[in-house]
Design a protein that fits this description.
Blueprint: E1 6-16, E2 21-26, H1 31-35, E3 39-44, E4 47-59, E5 62-67, H2 73-77, E6 83-87, H3 100-103, E7 107-110, E8 116-124, E9 131-135, E10 141-145, E11 151-155, E12 158-161, H4 179-183
Parallel strand pairs: 7-12
Antiparallel strand pairs: 1-2, 1-6, 2-5, 3-4, 3-6, 4-5, 7-8, 8-9, 9-10, 11-12
Length: 186
């Protein structure tokens, strides 16, 4: 899978004040990451347009950014609702971490048996923990918490999970209750 040089890192959601500041919803691990990037880009047709960051700060879980040459609210409004990108080389990444863009589309395997479970279709953010959306060979979607307990390891060959019993089963091998137990159900 080819590695993309520029990664989506947020979206300009609004202007702030009258001097050209823009409010960005960060898509990074934290707003701090976005505050430390010196050049952001946006797409105009198929071309990436560079924006030089002159100042950035965190404001209510968003990032307020000033760009060189954007000095008025009118100029800032032209950038509203654009997705911003960063050069992957400018984003710090610990050795045990990966970029989401690099793992979407990878095959997903059982860590122990190495049986193919499906393909990683998406990473869904949720308050408790992020979720891997895995599309199984039969087309079902299985959501797996993206936490250490379920992640065996991730490398260029795929995502290796430690699923619990029943997580990827289609239900065909579920033991049914005897009639007596079924009658006692509420």
């Amino acid at each position: 899978m080819p590695v993309e040089k520029y990664l989506e890192c947020g979206k300009i959601v609004n202007t702030h004040g009258v001097r050209g500041a823009l409010k960005i919803e960060p898509w990074c691990d934290s707003p701090d990451v976005l505050c430390n990037i010196k050049k952001l880009y946006y797409k105009k047709k198929d071309e990436l347009i560079e924006l030089e960051v002159t100042k950035a700060s965190i404001h209510k879980n968003h990032v307020l950014v000033y760009f060189y040459g954007i000095d008025s609210i009118e100029e800032a409004q032209l950038l509203k609702n654009r997705v911003v990108y960063a050069d992957r080389d400018e984003i710090p990444l610990d050795d045990d971490r990966v970029f989401v863009a690099d793992i979407i589309g990878l095959d997903v395997f059982d860590e122990k048996s190495e049986a193919k479970l499906g393909v990683l279709a998406d990473l869904i953010e949720s308050p408790a923990s992020d979720l891997f959306a895995v599309t199984t060979p039969d087309g079902r979607e299985v959501l797996v918490p993206a936490v250490d307990e379920f992640i065996g390891h991730i490398d260029e060959s795929g995502v290796y999970l430690n699923p619990i019993p029943g997580m990827f089963d289609d239900g065909a091998d579920v033991i049914e209750n005897s009639g007596e137990d079924a009658n006692n159900a509420l």
